[in-house]
Amino acid sequence: MSEPPPIDPALEKTRRYLPWVVAVALFMQQLDGTIVNTAVPTMAASLGVASLALKSVLTSYAIAIAVLIPLSGWLADKFGTRRVFGFAVAIFTLGSLACGLSMNLPMLVASRVLQGIGAAFMMPVGRIALLRTFPKSGILRAMNFVIIPALLGPLLGPLTGGLIVHWLPWRVIFLINIPIGILGLWLVKRYMPDHRGTDADPLDTKGFLLFGSGIALLSWVLEIFGEHRLNPGPVIALATLSLVLIAAYFRHALRTPNPLLPVDLFKVRTFRVSVAGGFLTRLGISGMPFLLPLLYQLGMGFTPWQAGLLVMPQALAAIGMKLLVQRIMGRFGHKRVLVCNTVMIGLMIAAFSQVGPGTPVAVILLFSVLQGSVSALQFTAMNSLAYADTSDAQASDASTVASTGQQLAISFGIAFASLITAWFLGGIDRADPAQLIPALHKAYLLLGAVTVASSAMFLTLRREDGANVSGHGQPPEAEAEPA
After folding, report:
1. E strand spans, 230-321
2. Whole-model pTM?
3. Residue 327 contacts by C-beta under 8 Å, 6 or more apart in sequence?
4. Most Cβ neighbours (<10 Å): which of 126, 183, 290, 305?
5. Residue 73: which of 217, 173, 216, 201 has the closest Cα?
6. What is the Cα–Cα distance from 304 to 310, expressed in whole angstroms?
7. Pair 289, 37: CB distance under 8 Å
């Protein structure tokens, strides 16, 4: 029998350390997001604005990511994954410094946009590096490993943010990113591979302008929609214009040889279901980190650090689920997991409509554990399915399109949650918990219903879909750990 070919030592070293490089960057990004969510009520009071008005700090960041993510694949192919990933980490770190130095809401929003520019390239380019470094059979394990250290961000973020805003100026929540960013840059220099595309196609400038302007305008309309001081006529006109721009992009993409976001990827059924179904599912999930601090702090009177403690079990449960997800996916397959788990997520979101001042803390913690578990399983299943049937040559495009869909869902989810909450609040006294809590409960019920309905998208899957990624129905094989 012939001996197996020897493993390239350089490739073996890259596979060992690359997941850590991507994980550190994702940890910084996740830590920042969860800290900001917990600190929203305190930041709003310090800046002299209403808590719901501070959604612009969250949505501006998400919009910047959604608009610029389409460039990540082209930039990685043109300039290499190492250079683009290092640039992303550096810009995110500088944006964090600018956030910490902001003196008012407009300055903070502008600084969050700078952070979003860095974040737009970090995870997509990191994912491209993983896809081009690991074989397809090892992608699920590699991505799962990357997520586990990154989940320390959501684990530490809520409590850390609560303690910071309780004892220190809220600006510190952004400044703690600086040493993490410096560590990330050092790791990038030593261990990030420099993958490049074989053919450097010219940038689809027209497509970027059409798609970017349409998405940015639509996101802004969703943010301002529901502000009662605005005339609905101009808002509807702007919404119509944004949809026209997006439709024009799709028409352009079908007629262009190398579009910014190749829509022909949606001909791949598993990719189409993953991105479209994931978009709808994330609408409900993405609104929860914005609404929970409002319920805990403004509605139930918990301090920021106490509210952070109530959220921490979600991240702990997510880490535990990541240790089990490989077995679950291999046992049940993508279709069964996604259909059943999506319904469970919707029911868990709706369950928070039962949380109020008289709810035992043990019940709240149980809800957090369950929500963290099902959300972690959902994200892994959706993300891995997207690459089940795409070719290696499509890695950059698939990562770019999937990441764009995810960030759009996050941006729209925050705006949607804020919109329906403001709708249910109407003209009531938002400082009165007795009036605020019922409105939040209605928002949870609606978000849960939308999430449950999104499970219908995954019914179109076949039982064998994603088997080459999950190993469902296949004999187990020994896999080398990427660490």
Report:
1. none
2. 0.73
3. none
4. 126
5. 201
6. 10
7. yes
